[in-house]
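Design request, tokens follow.
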């Protein structure tokens, strides 16, 4: 009945110890295999890569320090970009439609963590309702999403 099934997961799950390289490629390959077999080829799966992870634990000293100094990248997990790159390669090898959130939402911590007096993240890696509107619009308006969804 469904034309597409969308899948996404936190990028740091594929790092060694949340913040360390190397990327655990075997875990990504298992996810790709699962996604390929999930619908039996009846429905296309669109795999959204990981989103940026500011790493700021809200309601903690971290959040106070980052917000007070307006340095929203103090705890950012920059290694998820390597996970995104590996996911993209493996998805391509497996014939899975892949959309990079990192490439398409173009998150910039100093501009995007606190927007119009609203936080865009509710914790280290999840968007707030406000963040869903901001980043969701960027993602849905991206050329790669429009190209896939218009098929």
């Amino acid at each position: 009945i469904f034309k597409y099934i969308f899948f996404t997961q936190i990028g740091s799950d594929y790092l060694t110890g949340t913040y360390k390289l190397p990327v655990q490629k075997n875990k990504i390959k298992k996810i790709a295999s699962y996604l390929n077999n999930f619908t039996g080829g009846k429905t296309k799966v669109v795999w959204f890569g990981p989103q940026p992870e500011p790493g700021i634990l809200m309601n903690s000293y971290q959040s106070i320090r980052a917000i007070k100094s307006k340095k929203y990248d103090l705890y950012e997990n920059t290694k998820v970009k390597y996970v995104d790159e590996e996911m993209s390669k493996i998805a391509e090898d497996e014939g899975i439609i892949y959309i990079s959130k990192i490439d398409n939402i173009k998150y910039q911590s100093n501009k995007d963590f606190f927007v119009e007096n609203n936080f865009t993240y509710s914790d280290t890696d999840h968007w707030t309702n406000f963040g869903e509107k901001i980043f969701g619009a960027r993602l849905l308006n991206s050329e790669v999403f429009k190209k896939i969804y218009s098929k």
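Comment from the thread starter after seeing the answer: thanks! The two ends are 16 Å apart (CA to CA).
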